[in-house]
Design a protein that fits this description.
The structure holds two protein chains of two kinds. Helix content of chain A is about 25%, strand content about 35%. In chain A, the strands form four sheets. Chain A has a six-stranded mixed beta sheet, sandwiched between helices. In chain A, strands 2-1-4-5-6 form a five-stranded antiparallel beta sheet, covered by helices on one side. A five-stranded antiparallel beta sheet of chain A has the order 14-13-12-15-21. In chain A, helix 2 runs parallel beside helix 4 and helix 4 runs parallel beside helix 5. Chain B is mainly beta. Chain B has a single domain, classed as OB fold (Dihydrolipoamide Acetyltransferase, E2P), CATH 2.40.50. Chain B is built from one helix and four strands, in the order E-E-E-H-E. In chain B, strands 3-2-1-4 form a four-stranded antiparallel beta sheet. In chain B, about 20% of the residues are buried. Classes of the chains: A alpha+beta, B mainly beta. At the A-B interface, strand 16, strand 19 and helix 10 of A face strand 3 and helix 1 of B.
Chain lengths: ~350, ~70
């Protein structure tokens, strides 16, 4: 029995057709795709706020929706916690009462989550007497997470929960979310159009395009499929590598990535771990041999594992212990004989790296 | 040097200005036009960059913007 199984079909008046089926068995799954690919529709169907022409939804074997047999469980009885881009807290209630609202509306006989522990894990203690209008965006989102988990959900669903936050806050909220999922073992379906978020957090990713599922699998695998690669700079390949041992050195930050040295621009070493570094495939130069006499500081050694032509460019995946995507011209790919198995060096200016924590 | 970057413009170093961490290097192309590069100070020193030295400005094709008048 899978955790969640979904099959749905709906034709909108606009002509857009949604036709998606998948089964989920992972604790943290991302539903990923560009705007208009059907992500929010799928979420709405599972939550029960949108009823498609034909669908069946099962959560832990329990039928939530089965249009063929006229079964439709009301949203409140589905035991699903929801978090949206904008926290949608009750403006006239304090943080404490917003949280208690979640607990009061817990479906009977569902899991119990200790209120004090939620306050502790999400570090809400100092906020309890405040009203939503006096909270920052990140604080509001933490309260929304707390309210959702206190409802004792069998499944947590989040629709672009980080989209309205500053880049510097996204990582912190994701950190809280991961802490929460680990603490209460709540399966989570996380809708995003950010490849960085998928790479950072998801165990499994379901990729949607124009109302269809075009790929699924672990992030490195699913995101290497033709569709996500073709999305170019909007949602296409993003390099997000996990780094370790970040220290301040003379004039820059030093770190290790997959056992190799990495130089980053000067900044504050992150207080939290793990940390990530992000950069564009267009900023990676590929060489067959290590080169000297070049100002580029980072020389990452690896082996080509995939070569994918996309709209006049070639995307090359290099396994350096983690996957690095490089965008090169077809001429460069031919000249350097870039093919799976080729040993290469990825050259990367320190200035092209952004630290994400 | 066999690398994937498509543009390697031969030039002469005109000026090196060291900052706290980075160096700004102005290089002059044969036609007299200039390209400015920001690299780490360490790299500038490692490469022994100084006025008059011959260098190559390496730019990936995907990073070149074009404009018209």
């Amino acid at each position: 029995m899978s955790l969640l199984s979904l099959q749905c079909r709906h034709r909108y008046a606009s002509g857009f057709e949604l036709d998606v089926s998948f089964e989920l068995n992972h604790r943290f799954t991302s539903l990923f795709g560009p705007s208009g690919s059907g992500k929010t529709s799928v979420l709405s169907i599972i939550a029960g706020v949108f009823r498609p022409q034909q669908a069946s939804v099962r959560l832990n074997g329990r039928r939530l929706l089965d249009t063929a047999n006229g079964i439709c469980v009301t949203p409140a009885r589905r035991a699903i916690g929801l978090v949206f881009q904008d926290a949608l807290l009750f403006p006239h209630l304090t943080v404490e009462r917003n949280l208690q609202y979640g607990r009061r509306h817990r479906a009977a006989a569902r899991r119990t989550v200790a209120y004090a522990r939620v306050v502790d894990v999400l570090e809400l203690g100092g906020l309890l007497r405040r009203y939503p209008r006096n909270l920052s965006g990140g604080e509001r989102q933490r309260v929304a997470l707390g309210r959702a988990v206190l409802s004792g959900p069998e499944l947590l669903m989040m629709d672009e929960p980080l989209a309205s936050l500053d880049d510097s806050l996204k990582g912190r909220i994701l950190e809280y979310l991961q802490r929460m999922i680990a603490e209460w073992d709540i399966p989570t379906l996380f809708v995003t159009h950010s490849q960085a978020e998928v790479r950072r957090a998801a165990e499994w990713v379901v990729v949607l395009q124009q109302g269809r599922m075009v790929a699924e699998g672990p992030p490195d695998e699913a995101l290497a499929r033709p569709a996500p690669l073709a999305w170019g700079n909007s949602a296409g390949p993003v390099n997000l590598l996990r780094i370790e041992q970040v220290t301040a050195a003379e004039g820059h930050l030093a770190a290790r990535v997959a056992g190799q040295d990495l130089f980053l621009p000067l900044g504050k070493p992150p207080a939290v771990s793990p940390s990530f570094v992000q950069f564009r495939p267009a900023d990676v130069i590929v060489s067959r041999q290590d080169v000297s006499g070049l100002s580029v500081r980072n020389h990452l050694h690896g082996r080509v594992c995939q070569v994918a032509p996309v709209e006049g460019a070639i995307f090359v995946a290099v396994d350096i212990g983690q996957i690095v995507w490089a965008e090169v011209t077809p001429q460069a790919a031919a000249e350097l004989q870039l093919a799976p198995g080729a040993e290469v060096v990825c050259l990367l200016k320190a200035h092209c790296l952004t630290l994400v924590s | 040097m066999k690398i994937s970057a498509r543009n390697m413009l031969k030039a002469t170093v005109k000026q090196v200005t060291d900052g706290a961490v980075n160096s700004e290097v102005v290089v002059e192309l044969p036609g007299g036009q200039e390209i400015v590069s920001i690299i780490t100070k360490t790299s500038a020193h490692n490469l022994g960059l100084a006025q008059g030295k011959t260098v190559y400005a390496v730019v990936k094709a995907s990073n070149v913007m074009l404009a018209v008048d």
